Amino acid sequence: MAQEDVFKKIVSHCKEYGFVFPSSDIYDGLAAVYDYGQNGVELKNNIKQYWWQSMVLLHSNIVGIDASIFMHPTVWKASGHVDAFNDPLIDNRDSKKRYRADNLIEDQIGKYEEKIEKEVAKAAKKFGDSFDEAKFRETNPRVLEHQKKRDELHARYTEAMQGPDLEALKQIILDEGIVDPISGTKNWTDVRQFNLMFSTEMGASAEATNKIYLRPETAQGIFVNFLNVQKTGRMKLPFGICQIGKAFRNEIVARQFVFRMREFEQMEMQFFCQPGTEMKWFEYWKKHRLAWHEALGMGDDNYRFHDHEKLAHYANAATDIEFRMPFGFKEVEGIHSRTDFDLSQHEKFSGRQIKYFDPERNENYTPYDVETSIGVDRMFLSVMCHSYTEEELENGSSRVVLKLPEPLAPVKCAVLPLVNKDGLPEKAQEIVNGLKFHFNTHMEAKDSIGKRYRRQDAIGTPFCVTVDGDTLNDNTVTLRYRDSMKQERVPVEKLREIIEDRVSITSLLKKIDID
């Protein structure tokens, strides 16, 4: 099945089973804005809990804050967002659709990479165990041709984005013969810049309003609170400040479901350190953040680092952790060494001294900063894409199952009375009452047991407990495992012991190596 078709099924599955709904759905929705349903919000909250605890529990020198969405407008002048937070946009005159020029070119680069991977996959299938992939990539004429085109395009693109050079970006689009996916034509307008910040007005009357912005990132709330946290927490370098919060960007080309939205949620941590030590911490956070992802068990080969060749003006190092989505490797997290840019800018614009007094060096200086920033919604999507599975079973039937990492599953255990009578629902509720204080446990009594199993598979519930007539006699139940569908008879009093460790966030945290 084509990956595009798989992705469409995932989007449909999200709505059908209460994970994600189009916002304002009864009014035909609002483009690039989504609501999380009853199962989606549980999965999302579990992701956030896993991230938060990995920061504040595993690191004694990291604390959290919750900064407001509305901030003084000068914050965004100091950060550079007012003057430079732009995307290069281009329109197709025939379809009347607008696109990001950089995305069109990146997609073209991705097409060359896909052609290379197809050649490699075809050869691997042909030659089997004797296949030497490295040698094939170095010698195969078709691979070399695609690689040459990819590298030449990438070099031109990187150079054009330095300015950015808008004329050069358009010329690349024309030279590559990139067509509008709707009209199929190359009738493009010139490329122009578009600021992504939403603005609004604050004030009691029309005459006394101030223009303010919905924050386009959460990081600035940390920077402007640096002194507050450092002094009240008596924090010593190195230390970090983290937060989870909403951010807003007026994405003209929002696409790929919740991957790129106008209202989204970020999990960010700013780690402040002595100047000159930032690259050590940059490497540390690369290692730690990759370990956080890999602990979920979604396949180490589905992750890769993508180092930035074009650095932001404030950075001296930057990399992305990319995950293999149905539409290719895409960024889910960024790790950036931001130097002392942000604190220095806010010191300049606010007129306040933002320095750290180092008692060991007996001097004041502006700390350097290493940032880790992960999109909650993108992480949600990567988990859903990896977990969605269609299986053909031995008996000829099929099932759709979400093989979610067990600690992230919305419901950890479903208790199912075999029939909705004879005292079984009451016994099932008794079991739920004993487990619900330890992990999310639901009871479901409607429909046949087979249909209920399939429904729980579809929302990713890792454990189902079936209560039958024998349960009333010997206090044992049938425990079913989601992924293997294995069933075993266990005493009711053993359920918590069997399930709790596997579904706890702690079980994930223990897998993270932070040495």
From TrEMBL:
List the subcellular locations. Answer: Cytoplasm
Amino acids binding substrate: 100, 217, 264-268, 371-375
Say which enzyme class the record assigns: ligase
| InterPro entries documented for this protein | aa-tRNA-synt_IIb (IPR002314), aa-tRNA-synth_II (IPR006195), aa-tRNA-synth_II/BPL/LPL (IPR045864), Anticodon-bd (IPR004154), Anticodon-bd_dom_sf (IPR036621), Gly-tRNA_synthase/POLG2 (IPR027031), Gly_tRNA_ligase_bac (IPR022961), GlyRS-like_core (IPR033731)
Annotated positions binding ATP = 249-251, 259-264, 331-332, 375-378
Q: What does the record give as EC number?
A: 6.1.1.14
> Can you supply one Gene Ontology CC term for this chain's record?
microvesicle
What the protein does?
Answer: Catalyzes the attachment of glycine to tRNA(Gly).
Family statement = Belongs to the class-II aminoacyl-tRNA synthetase family.
Designated name of the protein: Glycine--tRNA ligase
Give the source species: Prevotella histicola F0411
Gene from which this protein is expressed: glyQS
